[in-house]
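A further point concerns the way the authors explain their paired sequence and structure data. Showing the layout once, in full, would remove most of the difficulty. For illustration, here is how one protein appears when written out as sequence plus structure tokens:
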Amino acid sequence: MKPSSYTPIPLPDFQKMSDSASQMASKNFLEAMKTRHSIRHYDQRPVPRILIEQAIATAGRAPSGANQQPWHFVAIQDKAMKARIRTAAEAEEEAFYAGGGGDEWIGALEPLGTTAHKPHLTDAPWLIVVFAQRYGLTPDNQRYKHYYVPESVGIATGILITALHQAGLASLVHTPNPMRFLNQMCARPAHEKPMMILPVGYPAENATIPQASTQKKPLDMIMSCF
């Protein structure tokens, strides 16, 4: 039998709270997250790199299948690179809106006012491209299996979006389809799958959001309790 590498250690860092303190912290966080909105209009004010690094570091604390952390985040500030990504993304979006997405999907997007035109990809000070690693590689280039990859990357991305909002930044989940062009542009290996692009920055003074995006399902529609 192979020896176990499991080594338990005492739970670090956990802070006990009273019921009343927990309820207050929970309520305050909910109210803070109610102010989070996906935006497409960005201010030209520069965003310090440290804010992007700390948000990605926070995302990297996410739980993952077998703790294999099957993600990679590419942060892009370079204007020329953002322009190349926008050009490639808009080409895919043109095909999508020309019928490739199907009438039902395009109809579902109509209340959000989206089109093939994606200026936010060059207007935002930063783009963060999220990659999912289909499998891992050992130092000697041997493959090993990753588990629950989409779920793990989804959790990490949710934490990333929350961390960006906590830092006073706005973002948008952008998913051109297909996104294979991002591997070459971002110098990422073939076993990594691009999942989404997050434009990140401060909202422009004239920023707007779709009225439809404020319509969230009430608690009794998203929660069952037994």
Summary: The first strand starts at residue 71 and ends at 76. The two ends are 42 Å apart (CA to CA). The chain has one domain: 38-204.
